Amino acid sequence: MDLNQIYAPVSADLIKVDAAIRAVSEVNFPWLAEMLSHSLAVGGKRIRPALTLLSGQFYHYQFEYLMHMATAIELMHTATLIHDDAIDKSDMRRGRYTIYKLWGVDPAILLGDYLFAKAGVESSETRNVRTIRLFSQTLMTISRGELNQAINSFNIHQNRDDYIQRIFGKTASLFFLSTESGAVLSEAPEEKIQTLKDYGHDLGLAFQIVDDILDFIGTEKELGKPAGSDLAQGTLTLPAFLLNERYPQDNPVKRLFEDRKATENIKLAIEQVRNSSIVKECYNVAREYCDNAIRNIKTMPDTSSRQALIDLADFVVQRNR
Amino acid sequence: MDLNQIYAPVSADLIKVDAAIRAVSEVNFPWLAEMLSHSLAVGGKRIRPALTLLSGQFYHYQFEYLMHMATAIELMHTATLIHDDAIDKSDMRRGRYTIYKLWGVDPAILLGDYLFAKAGVESSETRNVRTIRLFSQTLMTISRGELNQAINSFNIHQNRDDYIQRIFGKTASLFFLSTESGAVLSEAPEEKIQTLKDYGHDLGLAFQIVDDILDFIGTEKELGKPAGSDLAQGTLTLPAFLLNERYPQDNPVKRLFEDRKATENIKLAIEQVRNSSIVKECYNVAREYCDNAIRNIKTMPDTSSRQALIDLADFVVQRNR
Fold first, then answer.
1. What's the predicted TM-score (pTM) here?
2. A106 and chain B: CB distance < 8 Å anywhere?
3. Quick one: DSSP state of residue A247?
4. Smallest Cα–Cα separation from B300: which of B60, B70, B63, B55?
5. What CA–CA distance (Å, rounded) separates A126 from A185?
6. Which of A12, A53, A81, B197 maximizes the CB count within 10 A of its CB?
7. Euclidean distance between CA atoms B171 and B80, whole angstroms
8. Are B9 and B310 spatial neighbours (Cβ–Cβ below 8 Å)?
9. A31 interfaces chain B, CB cutoff of 8 Å
10. A203 close to A195: Cβ distance less than 8 angstroms
11. B147 has a chain A CB within 8 A of its CB
12. Contact (CB, 8 A) for A115 and A250
């Protein structure tokens, strides 16, 4: 099943969200328009806007407000990527040059700030103080998580909880903002808001674990950037963590983290992970989160949106990009 | 008259705002707490929070909401300074090392993002969608203005309108957010909201023009950073603009902008401006904006807050730091 099939219950409205996101680049400053257009033109999977719309379909579906929230979330996501790329000095993202690569650090900082602000304006258009507050709280969680990651880069002494906490801040927080805000804006009962939030939480963790696996097993073409990018940044993801746990005395991850210049260890770590059961083990962890997400979502009313969210959880662990 | 005297009508509540701002650094992550505490401990003039409280005193003074907005505005201001310092590679601010200098670009980006988010949460605590939206719109204006400044750095071909537009985005926008949101939260009539907004606009322009003058005539001790910082960044401020306008064939600003390495030209430009009528001319421009601000504010009800805002406009052009 591909994403277009999964998104079917909201596909017409997702096109409108996509148009709203692209319209953000229509500004009267040519240089700003160019940077915005470069950042927003290639949409990625639009998984977060889809989550907002699907989560908003169980009760009182109010597209007018959901659209603003979905746009806000995607813009915030884009802004964090622009800042991340500047911090990581990444040249490529989704197969294209990054803002950092094309314009440099300073415009990347300011363009990210502009998009955070625009996202804030969009979230205020929901006219719902609860979702507006959730929106800003999520940005706090994300930036705190990114700071944590920056401070712990090339730190080999992290346990599994540190990793889960890190991907909670980095990815899960935005996933459950998407589902929770969709639920709030559709006036779902509190208990169902919590169910959709929990679903988003588990789906987000699974999504990031798979992302971290793909950074080891994907091709540069599939990833849109070189494999091993996380290791190159000194980010200890689950596969790297398991490799280090399995061979605590000596392994290429440990050698790399001890001497950042020994980049030949990135290739060695990738090979060693690929030729071990670590990939399977990581997929099992992701699968467990997805199973949990599905178990949760099955307590929601039986609608086409519910089926879409179940299929999405399956997609998340099966995807290769 | 010093600022403490001017702030008298709101001084007790300003202390509470100050405490709320400092409380932002009380977080459970030691490294984050340390960076926040460094950023928020030295308060500066707290002119923006004072504007919000004073503007909120003409009608229905609701400190509970004004406090959140004042805190939000000061946090947004701090966040923009942290990003600015990273972009400008500034080592000093208010006589102390910057976050950029102490921790580097990456933590500066993420700490700024965290404070933008925290500011957003604070603004949502006003529970007033109009002020929440104004808040995010202002951040859009500021970051667009900063982008404009970054793109036009070392560009000598700017006219006076470009300069005014730049300081509108950079400074006036946050000043009139302070006064406008104070007015909105006190349920002022629309016409009076506009009056307070106009006052904030003119005061903000005057404030920035004086800041730009002080960068030429202040001592390093008064400024808390070396004089001539704007020129070093390639930022064409009013004194530099007038010098270039007066000697279009050749002058140290032009030479500096043509050959960025010629740092002796900064010293020459400072000397030439100090020994000319340019300083007086710039003060006249600032004075005009302040007179306009005062004329405007005098149409408000005659209260101690009105007098404070009048005195503040006088202070803004008389200050030496």
1. 0.96
2. yes
3. S
4. B55
5. 8
6. A53
7. 11
8. no
9. yes
10. no
11. yes
12. no
Mutate which of B78, B118, B125, B147 to test chain A, going by most A C-beta atoms within 10 A?
B147
For A156-215, what is each residue's pLDDT tens digit? 999 999 999 999 999 999 999 999 999 999 999 999 999 999 999 999 999 999 999 999
ipTM score over 0.85, yes or no: yes
B146 vs A contacts (CB less than 8 Å): 110, 113
Q: DSSP secondary-structure letter at B9?
A: G
**Mapping DSSP to helix (H, G, I), strand (E, B) and coil, where does residue A36 land?**
helix
Please indicate if any CB of chain A lies within 8 Å of the CB of B164: no
Indicate yes or no: CB of B129 within 8 angstroms of CB of A124: yes
A27 chain-B contacts, CB cut-off 8 A: 144
Selecting from B29, B132, B140 the residue whose C-beta is nearest the C-beta of A114 gives: B140
DSSP character at residue B91: -
Give the DSSP letter string of A71-133. Answer: HHHHHHHHHHHHHHHHHHT--EETTEE-HHHHH-HHHHHHHHHHHHHHHHHHHHTT--HHHHH
Structure-token pair, residue B205: 């322009």
Q: Locate the chain A residue with the closest alpha carbon to B126.
A: A129
Confidence of residue A102 (pLDDT cuts 50, 70, 90): very high
CA distance B153 to B236: 8
Terminus-to-terminus CA distance in chain B, angstroms? 14
Q: Is B105 on the interface with A (CB under 8 A)?
A: yes
Q: What DSSP designation does A8 have?
A: G
* Nearest-CB residue to B147 (from A110, A116, A139): A110
pLDDT value at residue A95: 87
Count of helix runs (H) and strand runs (E) in chain A? 18, 2
- Interhelix angle B238-246/B278-297, rounded to 10 degrees, is 130
Q: Of A144, A124, A125, which is closest to residue A133 (Cα–Cα)?
A: A124
* Chains A & B: contacts with CB separation below 8 Å: 137
End-to-end Cα spacing for chain A: 14
Distances (CA, A) of A24 to A50, A71, B63: 19, 10, 36
Q: In this structure, are residues A41 and A66 in contact, taking their beta carbons and an 8 Å threshold?
A: no
Which residue in chain B is spatially nearest to A130 when comparing CA positions?
Answer: B124
A132 and chain B: CB distance < 8 Å anywhere? yes
Q: pLDDT tens digits for A111-134?
A: 999 999 999 999 999 999 999 999
pLDDT digits (tens, 9 = 90+) for B242-267: 999 999 999 999 999 998 876 799 99
